[in-house]
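User: tokens in, sequence out, please.
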């Protein structure tokens, strides 16, 4: 896919993470959105001519997700200011506008609990394998203006923030080079859809 095609594919892919109206949302889908906003921050800095560490930016996105789910950051972890995505999601969840699939956050919450950043050299939960964690690879696979090798590295780094099983890491690298099949059009959760639309708008502004 060309960079233009990757940018165009971002919106339907992110909307595809959302449940239908009235259905609960998987916590890993929200984590994917928060990590996407962290990666977007890297792109915004790059557009302004400033470098940023993608792995660290995705970790900050994961910490914002931790606060979104639990109401607090992990003890000893940095406390980054809110980004538009986690701020809006927090308002929706706190008002009862959406519910989370019970238990769907537990595995990644455990991976973030130490307050230390998991890395490829020292991943969080080295033996943990949770296939749902691969959801976060989706926005990485659609990052424009980088090659597949870099996407693979970012995908593995994103997984290692919370999980470290070798098979999971290998699958993350594989998925980073795949492009999502178009989602069938259908009604999505309206409030969550507004959050995705804002994320998409900012993603396009940073990449075009």
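Assistant: Sequence out:
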């Amino acid at each position: 896919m060309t960079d233009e095609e990757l940018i165009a594919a971002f919106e339907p892919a992110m909307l595809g993470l959302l449940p239908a109206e009235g259905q609960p949302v998987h916590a890993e889908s929200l984590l994917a959105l928060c990590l996407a906003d962290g990666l977007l921050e890297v792109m915004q800095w790059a557009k302004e001519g400033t470098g940023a560490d993608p792995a660290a930016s995705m970790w900050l996105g994961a910490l914002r997700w931790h606060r979104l789910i639990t109401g607090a950051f992990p003890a000893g972890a940095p406390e980054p200011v809110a980004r538009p995505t986690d701020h809006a999601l927090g308002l929706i969840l706190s008002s009862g506008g959406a519910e989370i699939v019970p238990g769907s956050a537990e595995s990644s919450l455990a991976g973030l609990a130490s307050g230390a950043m998991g890395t490829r050299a020292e991943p969080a939960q080295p033996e943990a394998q949770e296939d749902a964690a691969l959801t976060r690879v989706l926005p990485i696979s659609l990052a424009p203006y980088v090659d597949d090798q870099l996407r693979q590295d970012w995908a593995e780094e994103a997984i290692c923030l919370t999980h470290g099983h070798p098979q999971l890491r290998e699958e993350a690298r594989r998925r980073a080079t795949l492009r999502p099949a178009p989602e069938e059009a259908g009604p999505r959760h309206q409030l969550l859809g507004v959050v995705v639309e804002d994320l998409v708008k900012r993603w396009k502004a940073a990449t075009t």
